[in-house]
Write a structure and sequence with these properties.
The chain is α/β, with parallel strands linked by helices. Among the domains are: about 80 residues, Dna Ligase, domain 1, CATH 3.30.1490; about 60 residues, ATPase, substrate binding domain, subdomain 4 (Actin, Chain A, domain 4), CATH 3.90.640.10. The protein is about 35% helix and about 30% strand. The strands form five sheets. The chain has a six-stranded mixed beta sheet with strand order 11-6-1-2-3-19. Helix 6 packs across helix 7 and helix 8 packs parallel to helix 9. The relative contact order is 0.15.
Length: about 425
């Protein structure tokens, strides 16, 4: 009989908080056994603006997942996003100090420490240090240099930073809700674990997760992340546009968007009639579906165009040979994939989470990509957090420990 382990992902989004619980066997089989969601009232654009409301939302989502799974949740892998996220690429160089010129794990640690030695504003902190490649005596493209011989070791890394206060507030809310943070994970990085294949990451792919408040971008090439950025617009902006123009409530606008909305016009839109609920006892009104699309299309085009500008300015767009993968709840709006193809001029597909069993119907949806990805990230990296890091994440845990020690005076809960 195989023993089972539990891994939990907590997706803290602008419009909803999702909790996903997975059972993992010794053989690596992953089964989703619990899913919980609650409206997110305490966040704006991925940043906590009301601690108490966020704590209540976290508790509600986790309790629903606990009831469904029959598991008491103690630790979570939590996502972090928001327009405060920034990324840069760094490079470090050290002399190989190992015996007989052999690269040791300590050499790898030193070179990544050198690569992350960048000047940051006082209010920012490193969230991830993601190695892109190692170079031994001008030999490029090395994934794991340990055991190789040489004189000079270089590392190119992708450094993701965030506002200290924003990360601190997310951690504090989870802690006040009664749970331990195993790790804070950049949300588009987590989503990539759920929706991108190894081939896509190797050949070059863009992942855009269009959430409620932000659209998160990650670009991959040769198996590693090359660029990340955030656009501070999402599906909630489209909902707000409907509410303002049609003078209806946010809830009614969201239903109109989901049930009748589209990012592109169809021939029969002008003939299709949609009823708009009135506000506070006012009578409903009837409009053509074409008017609804007139409201949605400019906003979705703006979101995608801003994402394209971020991608175009990264210098990696020519390497994205497999195209664009759209995920997140707003990617389900009809016509969004076709609109993205026009703007990006490349193949586009819808990204849905995969690589798990169990509650497939509940979790195999684009809006669940981050939550499922947090579980898969946790499975991949949990052993590193408990018992030392692999070369792929060298230095990350030290950064997390120092950050939390400074914030809360103790990292006992992370050990």
């Amino acid at each position: 009989m195989e023993s089972m382990d539990i891994v939990t992902g907590l997706d803290i989004g602008t419009t909803k908080i999702g909790c996903f619980v997975a059972e993992v066997s010794d053989s690596g089989e992953v089964n989703i056994i619990g899913v919980g969601a609650s409206p997110s009232d305490g966040l704006r654009y991925g940043v906590v603006v009301d601690v108490e409301k966020t704590v209540r939302s976290i508790k509600a989502a986790v309790q629903k997942a606990e009831e469904m799974s029959g598991v008491e949740i103690e630790e979570v892998f939590a996502g972090i996003a928001g327009d405060h996220i920034r990324s840069i690429n760094g490079r470090g160089v050290v002399a190989i100090s190992g015996e007989n010129g052999e690269v040791s794990p300590e050499d790898v640690r030193r070179v990544i420490d050198a690569a992350k030695a960048v000047a940051l504003p006082i209010d920012r902190e490193i969230i991830h240090i993601l190695p892109q490649e190692f170079i031994v005596d001008e030999q490029h493209g090395i994934r794991d240099p340990v055991g190789m011989n040489g004189v000079r070791l270089e590392a190119e890394v992708h450094i993701v930073t965030g506002a200290i206060a924003s990360a601190q507030n997310i951690h504090r809310c989870i802690e006040k809700a009664g749970y331990v943070v195993s790790d804070l994970v950049l949300e588009p990085l987590a989503s990539s674990y759920a929706v991108l294949s190894d081939d896509e990451k190797e050949l070059g792919a863009i992942l855009i997760d269009i959430g409620g408040g932000t659209s998160d971008i990650a670009m991959f090439y040769e198996g590693c992340i090359r660029h990340t950025s955030v656009v501070a617009l999402g599906g909630k902006n489209a909902t707000n546009d409907i509410a303002v123009v049609l003078r209806t409530t946010i809830d009614s606008a969201e239903r109109l968007k989901i049930e009748h909305g589209s990012a592109l016009h169809l021939d029969h839109d002008k003939e299709s009639i949609v009823e708009v609920p009135g506000v506070n006892g006012r009578p409903p009104r009837k409009i053509s579906k074409g008017l609804l699309v007139d409201i949605l299309q400019p906003r979705m085009a703006e979101i995608l165009a801003l994402c394209f500008e971020e991608v175009k300015n990264s210098d990696y767009i020519s390497l994205m040979t497999t195209g664009l993968v759209l995920t997140g709840g707003a990617s389900l709006l009809p016509g969004t994939l076709e609109l993205a193809e026009d703007i990006f001029n490349m193949p586009v597909k819808l990204g849905v989470p995969n690589g798990f069993g169990g509650m497939v119907d509940e979790a195999k949806k684009p809006q669940c990509s981050t939550g499922v990805g947090l579980i898969q990230y946790g499975i991949r990296h949990r052993g590193e957090l408990q018992g030392g890091l692999s070369n792929s994440e060298e230095g990350l845990f030290d950064s997390i420990k120092k950050r939390f020690r400074r914030w809360f005076g103790s990292v006992a809960s992370l050990s």
